[in-house]
Give the backbone structure.
Amino acid sequence: MNSSIVRKLFRVVAFGEAVSWVLLLSAMFCKWILESEPFGLEEGGVPVAGMIHGAGFFLLYLIMTVVCHFVFRWNFKTTIIALLAAIPPFASIWFERKAVRDGLLERKPEAVPVA
């Protein structure tokens, strides 16, 4: 699998996961705090925003994290931290930035056996 494509996909999905959190939190705020339906949808858009976040970007982020585990040979601890970053709002962006800074989205060279 092409590591540059995986890197780009992971970064886009991590950003999309955070943006979908904003959408969901905005819809929840409007529904329960403002008691309005700004999106013109029943329930103030929470079901739609919830599906975009949960069934869309949240699951994509989890899948991309597992793909990155194998493509970039992440250790178990790094993979668990990346998976947990999907839970708190905006933590996926924090992990993506950390991964770029620490070189976690670069393919490690394969060990060549010495004959």
